[in-house]
Write a structure and sequence with these properties.
208 residues, alpha+beta, 11-stranded antiparallel β-sheet
Length: 208
């Protein structure tokens, strides 16, 4: 049998390299599906947003209270009353996982520590410097007040969405909303009370 010509060998080698590169390539993460289009009037939109209890968001969060503070990546997945919030890298450690189910609260750290309910609330408040209003926050991130509790709404003049919100002693300011398929869904908000501040930048939204 005659030896393969150099040009043929080069072609075989190039094909093998291409196959190997394709096999080793990392597939990019699929984007989250866009949330549903919202109603054009505020009362209907408010009810629509309050009823959509299943959502998932990713972004960045920064918290500050006095001289204490941190920033971290955040991944929040909410399924009705069960929420799982992952904070990556706060306070110089590997991260925190906050899980809520109704009135129940669990906290887990990258060191393997796990705390429940009152102990979890105390530890979370110690690390943040203030008590995190989780029950209300899952509505505030959607741009609406928590149902059943008195609230002062500052609705934008140009769009059926909130500029400001006051509820349960907290003030919420909405700095930016999405556009296109994400119109009406908050992207930036600041939550404040008595020197405590929480800033949230939402980079990806999925609301089912």
């Amino acid at each position: 049998m005659l030896p393969a010509r150099p040009s043929a060998l080069a072609g075989v080698v190039a094909l093998l390299l291409a196959l190997l590169q394709g096999a080793c390539a990392v597939q990019p993460a699929r984007p989250m599906p866009a949330p549903p289009v919202l109603a054009a009037d505020w009362p209907t939109r408010r009810a629509q947003l309050q009823s959509r209890e299943d959502f998932e968001l990713r972004g960045r969060v920064a918290a500050a209270a006095g001289e204490q503070g941190f920033s971290a990546g955040v991944h929040w997945k909410q399924d009705a009353t069960r929420g799982v919030i992952r904070l990556d890298g706060p306070l110089g450690v590997g991260g925190l996982v906050i899980e809520t189910t109704g009135e129940s609260l669990q906290l887990a750290t990258s060191r393997g520590d796990k705390l429940d309910d009152a102990a979890a609330r105390r530890e979370l408040e110690r690390q943040l410097g203030f008590e995190l209003p989780l029950a209300a926050l899952r509505y505030w991130v959607r741009g609406v007040p928590q149902p059943g509790i008195a609230a002062l709404e500052g609705v934008a003049a140009s769009e059926p969405q909130l500029d400001t919100l006051e509820q349960s002693g907290w003030q919420v300011r909405y700095g930016e909303y999405g556009s296109g398929d994400l119109a009406g869904w908050p992207r930036r908000l600041v939550v404040e009370r008595e020197g405590a501040r929480l800033k949230l930048l939402i980079e990806r939204w999925d609301a089912r």
